[in-house]
Here is the input.
Amino acid sequence: MDVTVSVAILHEMNRWSSWGDVVNKIYFIYMPSRLLGRMPGFGANGGLFSFFREDKYIAAVQKAINKRSLDWCIERDDTESDIKGLIKKNARVLVCAPGLRFMFYRKGFNKNRIVYLSMMQYLNNDIKPVMTKLRELDDERESQIGTPRNY
Here is the structure.
């Protein structure tokens, strides 16, 4: 790698990190908040859908992120929908499984950074709502620091 290229990459990373992390975190929320109590229909682990369904959706989103070389990473929520824990983990975007619109406690988190999936979007691995939200946030960042992203 050329020295000028690596210096340019470091400069770019510094510009991104001034806005936040170099890799922005997306967390996939699959169970209701503990504060509201869990309904019996949410299974032993608290999720509405099976473990493998969540992994398929997460993999589809991460594949699209990698294909576009975006600086985002999606992970499964391991805080049991604890909004304070998610804020401490520096979550930039939350993606909620179907049925959690009114069962997820989000106080203190920007509601414009939450994507609520419909049943059809989730079951068909439709990543458009998530990618649209990432584009909006990257456009916002671009207007602040002037670096275009590739979609």
Summary: The first strand starts at residue 24 and ends at 29. The mean pLDDT is 76.
